[in-house]
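A quick aside before the break. I want you to see a complete sequence-to-structure record at least once, exactly as it would be stored in a machine-readable document. Don't worry about memorizing anything.
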Amino acid sequence: MGPDERQLVLDQLVSSESRLLALLDGLTPAQWSFREAPERWSIAENVEHLAVFEDFIRQAIATALATTPAESPGPALLAAVASKDPLVLSVADARNATFIARDATRPNGRWPDPADLVAHLRAARARTLAFAAETDADLRSHFFAHIAFGDLDCYQWLLLLGHHTLRHTRQIEQVMAHPAYPARCPTSRL
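That is the input. The structure line, written in tokens, reads:
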């Protein structure tokens, strides 16, 4: 990963986390658990998914990097994967496209206490940031499949983590904009 690529990843990870945490500050229990519709995720469920997804992808990257890099992946594979950079960078903006989360990353109430969940999310992102800041691995030579996009390289996965957070941050903003979203009550913060 070159210096410009590293900086882009770090910027995306930091800015998406900051924006998300600003939204979560001071939520009431009713706001935390509000759903726009029965099939839609609450803010708590979105945040749980983000925390679990962050751990899942960071582990998948570690697993991919522990294998021998794709030996002479060939120009066709490298070009096909590299051509997906714009796709990865547009994940947050493609709100009309829906993705089905892997079972392992679906929310199921792992952290009943919102403070514990946010702490886990922050710790997970800190581990990702430390990895992205320090790795010297050839991220472009290690691949694993996205559920909708097919093979992505490990650099693209790091970029995707920031854009995935931003995508769910926008989903949380949508929840908050719903007409039935509970009003803030200054005495009932989480």
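Two observations worth writing down. The first helix runs from residue 3 to 24. The beta strands are 143-146, 150-153. We'll return to this after the break.
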